[in-house]
What does this fold into?
Amino acid sequence: MERVKVVASRRYGTLSPLRYPGGKSALAGLFADVIAALALPTPCYVEPYAGGAGAGIALLRNELVDHLVINDLDPAVHAFWHSVVHKNEAFVELVETTPLTIDEWSAQREIYRAADESDLLALGFAFFYLNRTNRSGVLRGGVIGGLAQTGTYKIDARFNRSTLSERISAIGRLSDKITVSNTDGRAVILAHANDTNAFMYIDPPYVKAGSQLYLNSFEHRDHTALAKVVNGIKGAHWLMTYDTSPLIERLYAKSFQRRYALNYSARHPGQADELMIASRYVADVIRQTELATTDASIGT
Ligand SMILES: C[S@@+](CC[C@H](N)C(=O)[O-])C[C@H]1O[C@@H](n2cnc3c(N)ncnc32)[C@H](O)[C@@H]1O
It folds into this structure.
């Protein structure tokens, strides 16, 4: 298969408050170009497997889309987004005042482990706290600097209170343009499948995923069931990223597919090939912007 360099007209920085291993904020520039070329009157950007929702936040903050749908089945990821959108001031206050100590880290880990969904603010903040204080943002990983805090980097290395408060407040100001949900990604895709104003970025758990990174209960039959839903989309525009796998190439054999390379920071230093699959009109736009190359990368 052809490997490509995806060239976007500009880059958007990191605007998600979450660290997501394998996060796709870098794709925001490509999505911006695609959405502009599609000339949707009031674009609605949908992430059925949102995680850090890095690209979506960048598009909404830059007024390139009118509405953002953030869905994630993981109760803690959902609690985070729900709280940031619906309890924004309380969340910002926690970001500004919660101590960055090993005692506090242990307490937040207990809240995360208890997974009590009756207090979404507490659960969502605990998720965020661990995401910002654990190595590589891995929830079940250890704290940066170790329990004895003897490492070069300490617990606060990735917790810049003012930067994070600013990112979270900015999302709060846009809350009437954000819908947060906690259901299976397929249900969200079906709900928007006929909406010609919708652009969906579908980034499901991968076939060979590092299951410790995030909720990953996807098996062969889930990939197959998802393909059935995506292949049946009629009106909405969509773009999907996956790890390269013969199963996925086969499931989406009738759709536009390209390999591209992405930099991973957490588990895959250097570049790893990924698969990009797209709906018809999205594929037309990508074809116009891509440059065939053997040295594939996302660049500006
Ligand atoms: C690969 S990650 C997405 C990364 C994200 N797009 C980003 O760039 O930051 C997949 C996400 O899907 C969520 N997830 C797993 N199974 C799901 C399901 N059946 N429905 C919806 N979300 C699911 C996980 O909790 C995880 O956050």
